[in-house]
Amino acid sequence: MADIQGSYDDLFTAVPNALAATLDAGDVGGSVAVLVDGEPVVDVWGGFADADRTIPWERDTIVNVWSVTKTMTALCALVLADRGELDIDAPVSRYWPEFAAGGKEKVLVRHLLAHTAGLPDWDGSVEELYDWPSATARLAAREGRWEPGTAAGYHSLTQGFLVGEVVRRITGRSVGEFLAEEVTGPLGADFHIGLSPEHDHRVAPAIPPAGRDEDYAASAPGNPAGSEAGNGVSVRDGNSLAWRRAQIPAASGFGNARSVALVQSLLACGGEVHGVRLLSRAGCDRASEEQFDGDDRVLGMPMRWGLGYGLFGSTYGWGGWGGSLVMIDPDSRMVVAYVTHQMREPADDTRGLDIVMSAYEGLQGLRA
After folding, report:
1. pTM
2. pLDDT at residue 223 above 90?
3. Three-state SS string across the chain, please?
């Protein structure tokens, strides 16, 4: 069995075993964290940070978590809403007047968070993703693909710019700055949108699935021209310095399982973790308010969307291209986070689900 580092409660032995199983099956590296009541019951990692398996995965190794980043961007919006600075039911154009172009006057902030705004497609180049004014101006000028709120279509790249520009208009700060100053800073969480150079040595670059190279790009099943990682975005793009430095708040966040679980524990624990309160309980409950239940036009599958999170029974969260995942269970006050740089073909990837299920084994023992 693969060597696993870190610590865990004996009741949760199934979790490090599940991580070890991914490594034994050929994965290069990864980390898992399980927090209950905001406290770690699992904080483990293993494998290597590089494809050649020469650099060990360390406690502070970080990776691009792709669309798990969306949960961080959504949390920023929820914090602003809880403070009364952002009205979820307001038209986006209240905060971003240029957005009303193209007949989008009826798009509400909640539609941006719930993938129901009708702007799922990124029609610019990858390079244009790195230019915030250009990217947001492009989206502001677009017409919506459907009447807002009447359908859902996963906004794989665009959601971050849409929500992020509303955050910027209200606060005068980018999502990355707001997250660092108002969320991850107070919590001491090692998560970044817009990675600065001093962290480069800690990054484990993404590794494409077996038989693929760095030109690999995934497509959502219901929209072959689209991609969970974005239209035309490849592993090579995600491993570039330009991607790390940019703020693409739907897809370019860097962190480890520990930091993801710590931040999202705010929602599992009623808005307060380690004596730091960033949300009221009502503010937390907003995340799981159902906004849509039906077939997602982009993902090609049934989905329930809350405000920035996918809803799955009484739990919610989201996963990223390549396998990283976060699951929040407010009833159990538990968060499970798994991050990896080892991609697998989406149809063959059950790693995140397996790790979540292993965490519930431990929870049953804890609550017994």
Report:
1. 0.95
2. no
3. CCCEEEEECHHHCHHHHHHHHHHHCCCCEEEEEEEECCEEEEEEEEEECCCCCCCECCCCCEEECHHHHHHHHHHHHHHHHHCCCCCCCCEHHHHCHHHHHHHCCCCEHHHHHCCCCCCCCCCCCCHHHHCHHHHHHHHHHCCCCCCCCCCECCCCCHHHHHHHHHHHHHHCCCHHHHHHHHHHHHHCCCCEECCCHHHHHHECCCECCCCCCCCCCCCECCECCCCCCCCCCCHHHHCCHHHHHCCCCCCCEEECHHHHHHHHHHHHCCCEECCEECCCHHHHHHHHCCCEEEEECCCCEEEEECCCCEEECCEEEEECCCCCEEEEECCCCEEEEEEECECCCHHHCCHHHHHHHHHHHHHHHHHC
